[in-house]
Amino acid sequence: MLPTNMRVPSRFAAWWVLCWLTFATVPHGLGQAYQGKQLVKAELLADTSGIVPGKPFTIGLLLRMAPRWHTYWKFSGDAGLPTELKWKLPPGWKIGEIQWPIPLKTIDPGDIETYGYENEVLLMQEITPPPKIDDSSVRLSADASWLVCEKICIPGSETLQLELPE
Nearest 10 degrees: CA dihedral of 104, 73, 49, 86? Predict the structure, then answer.
């Protein structure tokens, strides 16, 4: 039997290897489905129905998780990966940092402490359009990726779009 001070690192190593093996064997882009069940539904939302040139507004990535599954906070703890957003914005547009809600502390298999979200989370960012917009509507696009876990971890990703009128 391992000494007490070696049990947590050993459990962590075993859990981490399991997560990475799962991550490496699941097709990317299809990671949100497992055994025919949708684990995460992703959607972009905005706090405006129309864009005003030069006026900031808030946009958010809403992730809805299946019961008992969770995603991770920006500082995930002993394991896990935070949700990432890579924006494809028109020239002159600016995006702020993600505003992370306060996370829940979870205990993953192997007594691994992590921080994240269950049920749903809205990750918000401020977007500032340029002072002049030439088009009558703008399509905002982002590549979102996340890791969703219960007893196993499965990566998910989706390219999301939101069209807003000026």
Answer: -170
